[in-house]
Write a structure and sequence with these properties.
Number of strands: 9
Bound molecules: zinc ion
Shape: globular
Low-confidence stretches: none
Largest sheet: 7 strands, mixed
Strand order of the largest sheet: 3-2-1-4-9-8-7
Helix content: 25-40%
Oligomer: single chain
Number of helices: 5
């Protein structure tokens, strides 16, 4: 996989502000929920600070922090998840975390901890290396926790599905850059929303 392009500090801030606005506009970051990060080219990452309203981020809401050290609490309680993904997979250039409602609702169904399966949908082609709707993808679902650092340490994810869901909480989606991370989250939320509608029609 190609390595992500190195971003300047300014580009990183601009991308995170835009990512926050895009997710907030879709109703995925209620009550300051969510956090967003991009990898910098110098061993650091830029990440949104804890408690910031994602619809109106400013440059000061973006922290530039070394990936070689544990992130401070000011970064976000969930920053250790971002750090783990960047450390383990050099192809990841951006990580987005939000609370989109359809994804989160389906994560609460019985059996959801076995993963949420999507199949037969055109939009599956938004995911990496998928070229046909005639396939199925299972997005992992993990139990929610308030111990994000411990969760980060034991985190496992699929090399082919660029996302994981926390039950009753939200989703992490990632990609080589901020646009890809957003696109993956948007496609998954759309497909899970279709699944919610399909169940209502029964
Ligand atoms: Zn969250």
């Amino acid at each position: 996989l190609p390595r992500p392009l190195a971003l300047t500090n300014e580009e990183a801030r601009t991308q995170l502000i835009a990512l926050g606005q895009a997710c907030a506009a879709r109703g995925w970051t209620p009550a300051t929920a969510g956090n967003f990060s991009v990898r910098l080219g110098d061993g650091r990452a830029a990440i949104t600070r804890s408690g910031a309203d994602k619809s109106r981020l400013v440059a000061e809401d973006v922290l530039l922090l070394p990936l070689g050290e544990a992130p401070p609490r000011s970064a976000s309680a969930e920053a250790p998840i971002h750090w783990r993904l960047y450390r383990e997979d050099r192809s990841i250039g951006a990580v987005a975390h939000a609370h989109p409602p359809a994804t989160t609702a389906l994560s609460l169904l019985p059996g959801a901890l076995e993963g949420l399966k999507l199949e037969g949908l055109e939009l599956l082609k938004v995911l990496p290396r998928i070229t046909t709707h005639e396939t199925s993808v299972t997005v992992p679902v993990l139990p929610n926790t308030q111990g994000m650092a411990a969760l980060a340490d034991r985190l496992v994810w699929s090399p082919t599905v660029p996302a994981l869901i926390l039950q009753g909480h939200g989703i992490y989606a990632w990609g080589p850059d901020a646009q890809a991370a957003f696109r993956h989250m948007e496609a998954l939320e759309y497909m899970f929303d279709l699944e919610c509608r399909r169940r209502q029609l029964r």
